Each structure stands twice: as structure tokens, then as C-alpha cells.
């Protein structure tokens, strides 16, 4: 059994390029499927947020045919969501893996959270498993060392693509494009066609492109943990 830290956004709104605000949070399908897959494989999952605040669910992720099932799963883990750990309390090396579900929320807080950055740099340096999904890779932007180097430079990853952001995300309102920002830091973006299921595994870094890739990303994370 591995001990997994799921770092989740605490942001419930994102500022848009025009100065207005848009509701956000974590994307329900992504958190649910990552949690479900890891727990089903026998792993222990701890949820943590900046400041230990309750992570808000993006209201836009609770629509459609799967909304009731997602709500039911979230209700079943409400105790975990209501009392997350604060990222500042987590020690380096305490967990076997760090997992970041998406939603636009990570662009607001996880992308600049120094404690998440500290934990991700440590994970990269000790080759621990790191899993990111959709906009979750925004959290990787925090992983910059004191000398200014990016901990995931040269690593291949999938992320919600710029085209997907323009077509079905925040569009022109996006304050920045996560894929482009990661590429600027030296990550190697490996995009697939918009809205297709795509998971990239580069050693211990596992990444999924979009919500459609949630189940597949969880499965690849389980494989990566089994190989440790």
C-alpha cells in the first residue's frame, strides 16, 4: 500500500483576462476517478489544500448524466474533504506519491503555492510518483528551486491543451495557458487531439490531458505505484 497525497485547490473563483471573476474549484470527475482508482487498488489517500481549507467543487463539473453519481461519491468522502491537511504541515518524503486533480482552481493557488512547490521539488529529486490531470499540471509551475531551475524540465507530460482551453475552457478569458506556461519553463508537452483520452507516463511522472482521461490516468498511476 502506498501513501498518496492528493493536493487539491482551495480556490473557488478565478480572475479572467477582462478583470471579471469566474467560479471554479476542483473538477469533480477528476478528483472522484483518481481517488476511486487509487483506493480500489489498496492505496491510502490523504487530501490536502493550501491553508487546510475545504476544497470547493467547480459547479460546472456537476452537470450532465454523471452528476448524481459524482455527488454521491463526493458525499461518501465528505469527511476527507471537510478536514483536509494543510500543505504547509506536510513534510518532505512523507508520502510515496503526490497527485493533482484539475479544474481551473489550481491555476489560482497551487501554481504559486510555495509548500506544494517544496513537496514537488522533493518528489522530483527522490523520483517519487507524481500524477497530474487536466489543469492539475498548473501545480507543477510551483516546483521551482531556489536557484530558479524548474524541477520538471525536460519531462514529457499531457495537460489540458491550449486548443482545448480556447475551444471549451475559459477561451480568451483565461488569465494564462497552462500548457504554454509549462513549455516556457522547459517541460515537454505531448498533446493529443482535443478531447481524446491521453495519458503520458515519463518515468514516475504520470499525466492526463483532460477530464475524459480521468479513469485512464488513475489506472496508469496505479501501474506506476505497483512498479515502485
Automatic annotation (TrEMBL):
Source species: Microbacterium kyungheense
UniProt similarity note: Belongs to the peptidase C56 family. HSP31-like subfamily.
Family matches, as Gene3D superfamilies: 3.40.50.880
InterPro entries, per the entry: Class_I_gatase-like (IPR029062), DJ-1/PfpI (IPR002818), Prot/Nucl_acid_deglycase (IPR050325)
Molecular function, one GO term: peptidase activity
Keyword Protease in record: yes
Keywords: Hydrolase, Lyase, Protease, Stress response
Name this polypeptide is given: Putative intracellular protease/amidase
Amino acid at each position: 500500500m502506498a501513501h498518496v497525497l492528493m493536493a487539491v485547490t482551495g480556490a473557488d473563483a478565478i480572475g479572467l483576462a477582462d478583470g471579471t471573476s469566474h467560479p471554479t474549484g476542483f473538477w469533480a470527475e477528476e478528483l472522484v476517478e483518481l481517488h476511486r482508482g487509487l483506493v480500489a487498488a489498496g492505496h491510502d489517500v490523504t487530501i490536502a489544500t493550501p491553508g487546510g481549507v475545504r476544497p470547493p467543487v467547480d459547479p460546472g463539473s456537476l452537470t450532465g448524466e454523471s452528476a448524481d453519481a459524482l455527488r454521491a461519491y463526493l458525499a461518501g468522502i465528505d469527511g476527507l474533504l471537510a478536514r483536509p491537511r494543510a500543505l504547509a504541515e506536510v513534510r518532505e518524503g512523507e508520502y510515496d506519491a503526490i497527485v493533482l486533480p484539475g479544474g481551473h482552481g489550481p491555476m489560482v493557488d497551487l501554481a504559486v503555492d510555495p509548500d506544494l512547490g517544496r513537496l514537488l521539488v522533493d518528489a522530483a529529486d527522490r523520483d517519487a510518483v507524481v500524477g497530474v490531470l487536466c489543469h492539475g499540471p498548473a501545480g507543477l509551475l510551483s516546483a521551482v528551486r531556489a536557484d530558479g531551475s524548474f524541477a520538471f524540465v525536460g519531462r514529457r507530460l499531457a495537460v489540458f491543451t491550449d486548443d482545448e482551453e480556447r475551444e471549451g475552457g475559459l477561451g480568451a478569458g483565461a488569465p494564462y495557458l497552462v500548457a504554454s506556461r509549462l513549455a516556457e519553463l522547459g517541460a515537454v508537452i505531448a498533446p493529443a487531439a482535443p478531447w481524446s483520452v491521453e495519458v503520458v507516463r515519463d518515468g514516475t511522472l504520470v499525466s492526463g490531458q483532460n477530464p475524459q482521461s480521468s479513469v485512464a490516468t488513475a489506472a496508469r498511476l496505479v501501474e506506476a505505484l505497483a512498479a515502485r
